[in-house]
Design a protein that fits this description.
The protein is an alpha+beta fold. It has three domains: 84 residues, Phosphorylase Kinase, domain 1; 252 residues, Aminoglycoside phosphotransferase (APH), C-terminal lobe (Aminoglycoside 3'-phosphotransferase, Chain: A, domain 2), CATH 3.90.1200; 128 residues, no CATH class. Helix content is 46%, strand content 14%. It contains 16 helices and 14 strands. A hairpin with a 2-residue loop joins β2 and β3. α5 packs across α9, α7 packs across α9 and α9 packs antiparallel against α10. The radius of gyration is 25 Å and the shape is globular. 37% of the residues are buried.
């Protein structure tokens, strides 16, 4: 087994739970949080290993997973936990995220197709069960960082928006007038009944659709007591999901029908407060885009800014604030019409890595970025399939060549070493905000070895650094 650093705890948990050591551990690409996830093969099964530095957050997830399983809700099961609670194993849920399915099944105008709409309705049918039934099982003393989405929590979200979005995008505002309206809005939101389980991050990337088209739910460690409207607003105003307004109305109606199976409530008041919670959720999300995008150098989060601005514009036009917050309303209107924000491109702040294969016979490629640096790796020491007639008409992307190199240990070592070397620069470039890095692989003809290595490098970067834009090309083969 090829060892990955610092997985001894996962191996020990596998031995403890399964009585066997893992046959394979694969680190999964990082997401928005600092948690690390690993796909593990052990005892003929696949499980997910998780490493989190924040112990209280880990304990919240573990406790909630146990409680929601007891309530017979579709969430992963926690299988084993390390003594320090920083590592744990959970069941692997096979399938695609709801967001991935949405992206694959959009029709010509970008709207979800009927299949995806039915999946959304299945998801929405489950939400009241989490909020009402799940709340009866949850131990809310385990919540992190707070037990309730109360006044302090709401103000945290609003200030998150102020400091990590408004200030990082250098938009000018009157802080006192904004704060006054924040307090008014907070007073209003605190009137909503809140003795329910608020999932907190109920959005399409945290919902897995299994092969039999059933939803499973993950990443609920931020849950706490809260109002019902917040979660459904999170799902329907999920920025990049870009759910059309008429479909939002239909899905909100579906949710209300489902919720009435569990509660009696004032529907008119519920709908009125829903809009207010939608504003708060969008502002909180914008704070996250600023924090993750600008401060943590994960530019793909910045691509969510334009759809968030369009969502704000729609709300302001169709569902104005139900209370008087004149400065906030006017200010959000200005943001929603800001051309720079509406056309914001994550690419302009991203690190772009250009990966290319080439033939030394035709010279080392010119670097058009002007960076003047990067790497040129010489693959000519590797056993060359080009010496054999049967590989004359295939290249490093073809199965025959991939199988050839699978039997060459020196190629596996070469690929791993080049990935480790390039990774050092990628990490440093992300921290320092550099925009371009070039990685070139050369061989005699630019057909087999260099193409294979360039493909593996691009694959490695895309899997481990999703915030990086990878431009892959093969100079000789593309001709």
């Amino acid at each position: 087994m090829a060892k990955i650093n610092n997985t001894e705890q996962l191996e020990a948990l596998c031995v403890k739970h399964f009585g066997a050591t893992p046959t394979h551990i694969e680190k999964l690409p990082l997401s928005g949080s600092s948690r690390e996830y690993f796909k593990i093969e052990v005892a003929g099964k696949i499980v997910i290993g998780t490493h989190g530095y924040e112990v209280r957050e880990n304990k919240a997830f573990i406790s909630f997973a146990n409680s929601l399983n007891e309530a017979q809700l579709p969430v992963p099961k926690v299988l084993a936990v390390s003594d320090d609670s920083k590592w744990y194993l959970q069941t692997f849920i096979e399938g695609d995220t709801l967001f991935d399915i949405l992206e694959k099944h959009r029709i010509n105008d970008g709207s979800p197709d009927n299949f995806t709409i039915e999946l959304y309705k299945k998801v929405i049918a489950q939400l009241p069960k989490f909020q009402v039934i799940g709340a009866k099982y949850i131990d809310f003393s385990k919540c992190y960082p707070r037990e309730r989405f109360d006044r302090q929590s709401i103000m945290w979200d609003l200030n998150y928006f102020k400091y990590y979005f408004l200030k990082t995008t250098h938009t000018v505002f009157d802080e006192q007038l904004l704060e006054n309206d924040f307090v008014t809005l907070c007073d209003y939101l605190c009137e909503a009944p809140s003795d329910f389980f608020m999932y907190r991050d109920f959005q399409s990337r945290n919902i897995i659709i299994t092969p039999d088209n059933e939803p499973y739910f993950v990443d609920f460690q931020g849950g706490r007591y809260g109002a019902l409207q917040y979660d459904i607003a999170s799902l329907l105003y999920d920025g990049k999901a870009a759910i059309p307004p008429e479909l939002r109305i239909e899905l909100l109606d579906c949710y209300i029908v489902e919720l009435k199976k569990y509660l009696d409530f004032d529907e008119q008041k519920f709908r009125e407060m829903f809009a207010a919670f939608a504003y708060v959720r969008i502002m909180q999300a914008c704070g996250s885009y600023g924090y993750r995008g600008f401060l943590e150098n994960k530019p793909h989060f910045l691509g969510s800014i334009p759809p968030a601005m369009r969502n704000l514009g729609y709300l302001l036009d169709n569902h104005p604030f139900p209370i008087k917050v004149p400065y906030l309303e006017s200010y959000l209107r200005g943001l929603s019409q800001n051309e720079e924000l509406l056309n914001y491109s994550a690419a302009k702040n991203a690190l772009t890595v250009t990966v290319m294969s080439f033939s030394y016979r035709k010279g080392i490629p010119y670097d058009p970025t002007g960076n003047g640096g990067g790497f040129v790796f010489d693959c000519r020491a590797i056993h060359n399939p080009g010496r054999y007639a049967k590989y004359a008409n295939v290249n490093g992307k073809d199965a025959e060549v991939i199988d050839f190199f699978a039997k060459e240990p020196e190629m596996a070592e070469f690929v791993q070493l080049t990935q480790r070397i390039v990774e050092i620069s990628v990490k440093k470039y992300l921290k320092r905000g550099f925009k371009n890095l070039t990685v070139l692989f050369g061989c005699t003809g630019g057909q087999h070895r260099s193409v294979f290595c360039a493909e593996r490098m691009a694959e490695f970067l895309r899997e481990n650094y999703p915030q990086v834009i990878v431009n892959l090309s093969h100079r000789e083969q593309d001709r």
